[in-house]
Amino acid sequence: MDSTELRIAAVVPCHNEEAAVAKVVADLQAAVPGIVVYVYDNLSTDRTAERAREAGAIVRHEHTKGKGNVVRRAFADIDADIYLMIDGDDTYEASAAPLMIKTLLDGPYDHVLGVRRQDEGASAYRAGHESGNKILNGVVGKVFGENVEDMLSGFRVFSRRFVKSFPAVSREFEIETELTVHSLHLRVPRTAVPVGFRDRPAGSESKLRTYHDGFKILALIFGLARHERPVAFYGLAGTFAWLVSIVLTIPIVIEFYNTGEVPRFPTLFLGFTLLLLGSLAWTAGLILDGIRRSRHEAARLVYLRYAAVGGDDARDGDEPEGGIAR
């Protein structure tokens, strides 16, 4: 199916982007004829909403602070076949949108990630951001067993079934990490496309706080590892407790065997306590792994209720007969 026959919606989260948002809207409309651009104004104190409306966007307001809250609201409110998400700061080349949409349809894929390639002479990556991004990509790759090229990219294209199966729990800039992890654990068809990345226009300021947001993303990865890899997470803690228990108790057991006495009873008590805690950690990991499997099965069934992008049932926006895409 040709992309012109599909409903394509762009979600543009904005907070004080008066200097850039009109160009982002215009560039999207020029790149993808027929696209409906939704600018979500997130507590801006400047003329962001007015500029976006003048440029031809549908302006909506999210009064709870945070990009994650904006995406959660937009994904719930907007009904489309293809969703494009792009930041409102004009750092991404909107001209890459047609290729990303075509890639999604040709797959068909459910998630196309725009991997940033900084324009020659640009300094769009702030100090430490590029290296921090690589570190976070590596951590997620190790935890989930798949390579991630640009986990923090704000330029992505999604199918309807990806969006409608995405829980969107994050509140702020961790949303990109959550989107990436959702595609990994649900194992949806996904790919990546290089996109241009440039400096912000004059008068526009970054809302990122390098260390604050970096630590929040690391905390999210830590929490996701606990939820998505519970056997490894709790098993590692349990195994460590067992090893410490063995180190503490073996000398006491040997001495008891030789002398019939227990000279360090508190140490023996600590050793057996650690042995018990290690067993409880492994038990918790196994139980939570069963719950994880049930969650994934439920998410997969929600995902399968929608037709593949561009499929026979995709245009009307309704679920196919029987609720399962064929």
TrEMBL record:
The chain crosses the membrane at residues 231-254, 266-288. Pfam families: Glycos_transf_2. The keyword Membrane applies. Residues 11-163 form the Glycosyltransferase 2-like domain. InterPro entries: Glyco_trans_2-like, Glycosyltransferase_2, Nucleotide-diphossugar_trans. The keyword Coiled coil does not apply. Keywords: Membrane, Transmembrane, Transmembrane helix. Belongs to the glycosyltransferase 2 family. This is Glycosyltransferase. It comes from Nocardia bovistercoris.
